[in-house]
Amino acid sequence: MSTGAGRNTAPTAVGTNRDVLRVPGFRRLALAWVFSNFGDSVLFLTAAIWVKQLTGSDAAAGLVFAALGLPALLAPFTGRLADRNRRRPLLILTNLAAGGVVLTLLAVRGAGSVWLVYGVIFLYAICSYITAAAQSGLLRDLLEIRLLAPANGVLSSIDQGLRIVSPLVGAGMLALWGMDTVVLLASGCFIVAALVLATLTLAETVHVRAEDETFWKSTTAGISFLRGHPLLRRALLSLGIALGATGILNVTVFATVEQGLGRPPEFLSVLLGVQGGTAILGGLAASGVIRRLGLRRCMVSGVLLLAGGVLATALTVLPLILAGAAAVGAGVSLLVIAFVTLRQEATPLDMQGRTAAVTQVMTNLPQVAASLLAAVLIGVLPYQVLVAAMGAACLLAAVPLLPRRTGTPVRAAGPGRVE
After folding, report:
1. CB–CB of 320/312 below 8 Å?
2. Residue 286 in contact with residue 337, Cβ under 8 Å?
3. Do residue 37 and residue 170 come from a single domain?
4. Which tens digit of pLDDT belongs to each residue from 197-231?
């Protein structure tokens, strides 16, 4: 088994954002992440708006998001794919495939061919799951363990920033020049990402399949590992509960704006802008917080910030609601980055893709389920009741992360202290 360049050292402290940006390979990976994420973000929301224009149906537009979420069910298989192949070539081919698949949207010319939109979104969403799974292992091969936290923080900040900018760009292009220009831009972004990744050089870990390993055992190994790891099992439960609660927020925030503040729905963009801005700052600050508090306490801090932020949305005072939106953005960033770093440090190199895939399922499906439940309940319950339930769920999410008095404490295999 070959060894990646960054794994021979035994660091004693979490690195900084500046440290990780000094690594040429990471700078290339981050640049590819900018292009692939921009292509992803500019397309999916614009596609929903486009389907609404073509059909006049809200339900038809909503099916775009359903097509985007369905590949989560295939995550164990995409994770296995990322663990059983060299990850850099896989990322290159996946981005090229995404760029090609997206071009199929140029054939859509009316409501009768909207089915093609759903198929394309489904396929390119599979590509995004493969990309996320492969990138987790690539980071472990590329970086010292002490640089994982700042690397995850930088990539998260890029992601959050593009989520603010890309949909605006896509919607503007759709209004001015039509959907074909958005399709060409998204396809070009994926192709450029592949070209950038082609210039990345690193020593990748070679994974050898065990003789007694069956396909099913290999596919579900990520689930088995996370379930059997004392700290990761509890941390994943906390993550699922907390992010599931934010699915309720996606529904109640409209009532917060219209009923709580008495403002038009368009004011939601202000709250989302504040939340996105602090999510970016939270990503950039995450490595420093982890360095001072350790991974577990960073996750607890993120959960508590999230709980305070969502409870603030039940209020009617604008400054407090804005502060709550800021707390939600920062809290989610700290929670997710600390968990991802813990998972990367504790997971064996040949299982990075599969545990990453399980994480994606546990973060996406609870959100979707909670949003659907809240959409039903908000018609019969005051939104403040749902907000209170959401805040209670966030506080409950901190319980699995609390230190236990008995047994030997579990520590991650790296500098991101768990205590």
Report:
1. yes
2. yes
3. yes
4. 999 988 777 666 666 677 777 778 888 889 889 89
User: How far apart are alpha carbons 207 and 213 in whole angstroms?
Assistant: 13
| Mean pLDDT, range 276-300, rounded to an integer | 93
Q: Is residue 145 assigned to a domain?
A: yes
Decide: 363 and 243 in contact? Cβ < 8 Å: yes
Instruction: Give the CATH number of the domain where residue 92 resides.
Output: 1.20.1250.20
Please say whether the beta carbons of 36 and 182 come within 8 A.
Answer: no
Beta-carbon contacts of residue 54 (< 8 Å; ≥ 6 apart): 60, 108, 110, 111, 114
Q: How far is CA 248 from CA 2, 104, 398, in A?
A: 46, 34, 18
**What does the pLDDT read at residue 4?**
40
Range of the domain at 255: 228-401
Average pLDDT across the chain, whole number: 86
In angstroms, rounded to a whole number, what is the distance separating the alpha carbons of residues 192 and 180? 18
Through-space distance between the first and last CA atoms of the chain, rounded to whole angstroms: 32
Domain count, the chain: 2
- CA–CA dist 183, 188 (Å, integer): 8
- Do 117 and 173 lie in one domain? The reply is yes
Alpha helices per DSSP H over 2-113: 17-21, 24-55, 58-69, 75-83, 87-102
Is the distance from CB of 299 to CB of 338 less than 8 angstroms?
A: yes
Q: Does a structural domain hold residue 411? A: no
Say if CB 182 and CB 170 are below 8 A apart.
Answer: yes
- pLDDT value, residue 2: 38
pLDDT digits (tens, 9 = 90+) for 97-138: 999 999 999 999 888 888 999 999 999 889 988 998 888 888
Tell me the angle at which helices 318-346 and 268-293 cross, rounded to the nearest 10 degrees.
40
| Average pLDDT over every residue of 50-65 | 82
Is residue 298 classed as helix, strand or coil in its secondary structure? helix
User: Same structural domain for residues 178 and 42?
Assistant: yes
Same domain, yes or no: 141 and 179 = yes
Distance (Å, whole) CA 379 – CA 122? 31
Pair (191, 332) in one structural domain = no
pTM listed for this prediction = 0.85
Q: Which amino acid is at 289?
A: V
Band (pLDDT 50/70/90 cuts) for residue 335 is very high
Residue 168: per-residue pLDDT: 83
Please answer whether residues 88 and 197 qualify as being in contact, where contact means their C-beta atoms are separated by less than 8 angstroms.
yes
Residue 3 lies in a domain: no
Interval 94-105: pLDDT, tens: 999 999 999 999
